[in-house]
Design a protein that fits this description.
The protein has 504 residues and is of the alpha/beta class. It folds into 3 domains: 11-188, Rossmann fold, CATH 3.40.50; 196-281, N-(1-d-carboxylethyl)-l-norvaline Dehydrogenase, domain 2 (Orthogonal Bundle), CATH 1.10.1040.50; 308-410, Transcription Regulator spoIIAA, CATH 3.30.750. It has 19 helices and 15 strands. It has helices at residues 18-29, 43-60, 66-75, 99-112, 128-131, 166-178, 194-197, 199-210, 216-225, 233-240, 242-255, 266-273, 320-327, 390-401, 418-434, 440-450, 457-464, 466-479, 489-503; strands spanning 11-14, 34-37, 76-79, 90-93, 118-121, 141-146, 155-160, 182-187, 308-312, 331-335, 340-342, 347-351, 364-368, 379-384, 406-410. It has an 8-stranded mixed sheet, with helices on both faces. The protein has a 7-stranded mixed sheet with strand order 10-9-11-12-13-14-15, sandwiched between helices.
Length: 504
C-alpha cells in the first residue's frame, strides 16, 4: 500500500467511451481528483455528466450517501486540453485500438506530465511494449487492462512491457489494489492472460460444431451443466458480439505467428461475414427476434437403468460416480482393471480420453464427458459410434438418468466437449506459467474473475491430473496432426512427475 499513488494525487483518463468513464468512476470512488480528456470537443463534459448520473443512481440504490456523491462530483472535472493534465500522477488511456494513434498520444503526454507520473494503457489487444517504444522514459509505462464494466468487475491485468521498470509495475499494482480491485501481474504477451488462455473455451466448442458433434444449444448446455461454466460459448459470444470475439481470436492468432493452437473458427468467420453478430444485430448463433424460441439442448428420452454394474479399477476424476451409483440403488461390484465401467449388456463405459468409439472393433464402448463435480452436474454428455445397438446405448443413458442427470447423446467426437476444452485451457495456462507470463496463482485468479470460470485451469489440472490431460491431448494430436493439440512441454513434464510420484 505504501507504493500506491496517494489519494490526494490527480488521476487523468484520456478517452471518454464506456471504458474511460468506468475507469474514471473507479478512481473517483477511491478518493482521487479525476480529470477526463477527450480529443472530440464536448465529449469530456458529456462524460462528466454521465458519471454524475451514475453516482445519482448509486445514491438511489443506497450504495452511496448524498454527501459522498457531492464530494466525488466535486473532484471530477473535464479537461479541454492535454495541458490540464500536467499535475497528474497517473494517466490512463482508453482510446481507439490503433497503435499509431496511441503512440502519438503518449508522445504528447510525455511532454505534458512530470517525469514521475505513471503512464498506462487500457489496451486489450495491442502490445504494451510497442505503444511505449518511442517514449523517452518507457520504464514508467504499464498496461492496466480493466474489464467491462470497470466499476463492477474486480480484475485488472497489470502488464509489464519489455522496458517497464519493476518499481512502476509495483506502483501500478498497489494503486489498483488500493482502489479495491484484484490486480494480477503479467508479461506483455498477446492477449495478456485472460484473452490468451480463454481461446479454447470458444474454439473447441466451435470445432465440435464444425465436426457435426452437437448443435450450439447442446454444447452450451453441456459446458454449463457439466463443466460448471456460467455461460456456454455460443450464448456468450452472441452477448460479446461475434465480430468482437472473432477479432480478438484473430489478433491473438496473428500475434503468435498463426500458431495452430489459436486458429480461428471458419464457422464463426462465416457468421461474422453474414452480419449475424449476436444480440446487437438480432441474430448470431441464436435468433433474438421478437417471439423467437430459444433452441433446446438435445436430451435423451427416459431409459431403464441397469440393476448392477462392474467398476474395473479407479475411475480417476470420475471416481465420485461410484458412490452416486450406490446411493441410487445400483449394485456396484469392484474388480481390477484400467478404470472403466462394464454394463450388463456388454458395453464398456469410459471417461473421455481423446479416442473415439469407432476405433474399437472388438467391443462396444460409450464415452462419458468430464464434469467439474459429478454430484452437482445436471447433465452428462455421452458419445458412441454410429450404429451402436440402441439397447446398449439406452443402458448407459439410463445409468446416468438414475442419478438425476439429464443426458445428451452427441456424435462420436474425440475428446468430446468438456474434456477437450479443459485440457486445452490447462495446456495454455501451463505454457503461460512456464514462459514467465504470470504465476500459477495469478493465472487462476485471472480466469476465475475475468471470465467467471468455475475453477482456475491450474486448479482444475490438479483435480483431474496432468498425466490424464496430457494423454487426452496426445490422443487428439494423433487424430488431428496439425500441432493444435500437441501438449506443451510443461504439461508433459508435469505428467511424468505425477507418474513418478505414483510409483514411489
Amino acid at each position: 500500500m505504501d507504493d500506491a499513488i496517494g489519494r490526494d494525487r490527480t488521476v487523468a483518463v484520456v478517452g471518454t467511451g464506456t471504458m474511460g468513464q468506468g475507469i474514471a468512476q473507479v478512481a473517483l470512488a477511491a478518493g482521487h481528483p479525476v480529470r477526463l480528456y477527450d480529443s472530440a470537443p464536448g465529449r469530456a463534459a458529456e462524460a462528466v455528466a454521465a458519471i454524475g448520473a451514475r453516482l445519482d443512481r448509486l445514491v438511489e440504490k443506497g450504495r452511496m450517501d448524498a454527501a459522498g456523491r457531492e464530494a466525488a462530483a466535486g473532484r471530477l472535472h473535464a479537461a479541454a486540453d492535454l495541458a490540464e493534465l500536467a499535475d497528474a500522477a497517473l494517466v490512463v488511456e482508453a482510446i481507439v485500438e490503433d497503435l499509431s494513434v496511441k503512440q502519438r498520444l503518449f508522445a504528447d503526454l510525455e511532454k505534458t506530465v512530470g517525469d514521475d507520473a505513471l503512464l498506462a494503457t487500457n489496451t486489450s489487444s495491442l502490445s504494451v511494449t510497442a505503444i511505449a517504444g518511442g517514449l523517452r522514459l518507457p520504464g514508467r509505462f504499464v498496461g492496466l487492462h480493466f474489464f467491462n464494466p470497470a466499476p463492477l468487475l474486480p480484475l485488472v491485468e497489470v502488464v509489464r512491457g519489455f522496458a517497464t521498470d519493476e518499481t512502476a509495475a509495483t506502483r501500478a499494482y498497489e494503486t489498483v489494489k488500493a482502489w479495491g480491485k484484484t490486480p494480477v501481474r503479467c508479461a506483455d504477451t498477446p492477449g495478456f492472460l485472460v484473452n490468451r488462455i480463454a481461446r479454447p473455451f470458444y474454439a473447441e466448442a466451435f470445432r465440435v460444431l464444425e465436426e457435426g458433434g452437437a448443435d450450439p444449444a447442446t454444447i452450451d448446455a453441456v459446458l454449463r451443466e457439466s463443466g460448471g461454466f456460467r455461460m456456454g460459448p455460443f450464448e456468450l459470444t452472441d452477448l460479446i458480439g461475434q465480430d468482437v470475439n472473432e477479432a480478438v481470436t484473430r489478433s491473438v492468432w496473428d500475434s503468435f505467428f498463426q500458431d495452430p493452437k489459436f486458429t480461428p473458427s471458419l464457422a464463426q468467420r462465416r457468421l461474422v461475414e453474414s452480419g449475424r453478430h449476436g444480440r446487437k444485430t438480432g441474430h448470431g448463433w441464436f435468433s433474438y427476434a421478437e417471439g423467437a424460441e430459444r433452441p433446446e439442448p438435445h436430451t435423451a428420452p427416459p431409459a431403464k437403468a441397469p440393476e448392477r454394474i462392474t467398476v474395473r479399477g479407479d475411475l480417476g476424476p470420475a471416481e465420485p460416480l461410484v458412490g452416486l451409483f450406490e446411493a441410487a440403488g445400483i449394485t456396484v461390484r469392484r474388480k481390477k482393471g484400467e478404470g472403466f465401467v462394464d454394463l450388463p449388456g456388454g458395453v464398456r463405459l469410459s471417461l473421455v480420453d481423446g479416442e473415439s468409439s469407432f476405433e474399437y472393433h472388438q467391443e462396444e464402448i460409450v464415452y462419458f464427458d468430464l464434469a467439474l463435480d459429478y454430484a452437482a452436474a445436471g447433465r452428462i454428455a455421452l458419445s458412441a459410434r454410429e450404429g451402436i445397438a440402441p439397447e446398449a446405448l439406452a443402458e448407459a443413458v439410463g445409468l446416468f438418468q438414475a442419478l438425476g442427470k439429464q443426458v445428451s447423446v452427441i456424435g462420436d467426437v474425440p475428446g468430446m466437449i468438456v474434456g477437450r476444452t479443459v485440457a486445452m485451457l490447462v495446456d495454455l495456462a501451463v505454457d503461460a506459467v512456464d514462459r514467465g507470463v504470470a504465476t500459477a496463482e495469478d493465472v487462476d485468479t485471472a480466469m476465475r474473475l475475468g471470465v467467471n470460470y468455475p475453477a482456475g485451469p491450474l486448479e482444475w489440472a490438479e483435480k483431474v491430473g496432468h498425466r490424464r490431460l496430457c494423454a487426452l491431448l496426445r490422443q487428439l494430436h494423433e487424430r488431428y496432426a496439425t500441432g493444435r493439440y500437441a501438449p506443451a512441454v510443461g504439461l508433459v513434464r508435469r505428467g511424468y512427475t505425477e507418474e513418478a510420484e505414483e510409483l514411489r
